[in-house]
Amino acid sequence: MTAVPQERKLVTAIPGPKSQELQARRLGAVAGGVGSVLPVFTKRLDGGILEDVDGNRLIDFGSGIAVTSVGGSAEAVVRRATAQLADFTHTCFMVTPYEGYVEVCEALAELTPGDHAKKSALFNSGAEAVENAVKIARAYTKRQAVVVFDHGYHGRTNLTMALTAKNMPYKHGFGPFAPEVYRVPVAYGYRWPTGAENCGPEAAAQAIDQITKQIGAENVAAIIIEPVLGEGGFIEPAKGFLPAIVEFANDNGIVFVADEIQSGFCRTGQWFACEDEGIVPDLITTAKGIAGGLPLAAVTGRAEIMDAAHAGGLGGTYGGNPVACAGALGSIETMKELDLNAKAKEIESLMKARLSAMQEKYEIIGDIRGRGAMIAIELVKDPASKTPNPEAAAALAKACHAEGVIVLTCGTYGNVLRFLPPLVIGEDLLNEGLDVIEAAFATV
Ligand SMILES: *Cc1c(COP(=O)(O)O)cnc(C)c1O
């Protein structure tokens, strides 16, 4: 069992010689379209530390994009997945079922918001879950149009590329995209022309006006939104926006889908980020943090909607793989046992306090936002113009990587530095990572 010492330690330059050797092999064999943020090859991952093949130990503020929330080798995940591997690797649930799949669906019914009857279907990836949510919503409503939002991200398959807002790198050159997808404004408080206080209701009114005038509410099958927008820049829709959209969906027979693939499973200090404004989605898509690093995704929702697709209409060879289901049960067990919602809230208060202190010194920090262990800073040229500063985000990330702290960037303008530490990270490592970020500001 892995037990990586929980300390940052650099023994070579980053990336080290062994990583560079592997990177050279990778460039010869792996398609160029598949990128890596930091070409450091991983040996072990545990708690808040990634150990690379050169023996460097890096502080992990990325969690493999919000996946390894319980750590990269959590005891319960490894124990349950190992036991399952020894029993059987696969049957295909559509051929002969197994208990783990049912148990995960039962857990999803218990953990997701609302006390109505719920059902789930399991898949392999987030994009696949979103695609299936659209299939289910169309089957239920017998309508076709799908509404998504500015800055939204929903995946890289053909339909989910259409649902995703940003051209580079997700869509460029990959069209034509799926039809009947419509994009409307989102309540991005920091950049709303009349100010953050007015943003929620004003953005909701604009979005609803566009839907009714340009599509017709009676043609809309689903409205899909991330309760905290992830790749688009960790944008929390301004207060009042989500409840207004949900009310509009309910009044018009539209299926409201919360894409909680990044924000779900304790990441924001709640099981699901939509709980923050008491929102009960009709359907909810999950993946990333669900299974401690194993590939699993789900659509969960109102039983009558989930049952709308005809028998055999949903599924896939690997969907709800037994080892991935065992990983999910281990991950959920860990989240409950260690109360990782409380841990995420502690991470938020520590990070926001430290980042606010940095903002007083460095005015290129335009905005600090996010919830729980999903925190970001938006970098600008100066606070008055709010001109995006992607160069600073890239330079800061590079400086952090060189010092052994894995951070990621995001945002439509590429100017957001985001922090997604594993929820099990120690407070000392969290502070040390923030020290490195602060020192990076002094150098750029
Ligand atoms: C990552 C992500 C997806 C896509 O998930 P994949 O597993 O990469 O297909 C969809 N929606 C959101 C909000 C995401 O963050």
Automatic annotation (TrEMBL):
Coiled coil: none
Organism superkingdom: Bacteria
Catalytic activity: (S)-3-amino-2-methylpropanoate + 2-oxoglutarate = 2-methyl-3-oxopropanoate + L-glutamate; 4-aminobutanoate + 2-oxoglutarate = succinate semialdehyde + L-glutamate
Signal sequence residues: none
This protein's pathway: Amino-acid degradation; 4-aminobutanoate degradation
Alphabetically ordered keywords of this record: Aminotransferase, Pyridoxal phosphate, Transferase
Swiss-Prot/TrEMBL cofactor(s): pyridoxal 5'-phosphate
UniProt enzyme class: transferase
GO molecular function: (S)-3-amino-2-methylpropionate transaminase activity; 4-aminobutyrate:2-oxoglutarate transaminase activity; 5-aminovalerate transaminase activity; identical protein binding; pyridoxal phosphate binding
GO biological process: gamma-aminobutyric acid metabolic process
A Pfam family matched in the record: Aminotran_3
EC number(s) from the headed UniProt entry: 2.6.1.19, 2.6.1.22
Family in the record: Belongs to the class-III pyridoxal-phosphate-dependent aminotransferase family.
Family annotation (PANTHER family): AMINOTRANSFERASE CLASS III (PTHR11986), LEUCINE_METHIONINE RACEMASE (PTHR11986:SF58)
The name this protein goes by in its record: 4-aminobutyrate aminotransferase
Native organism: Streptomyces globosus
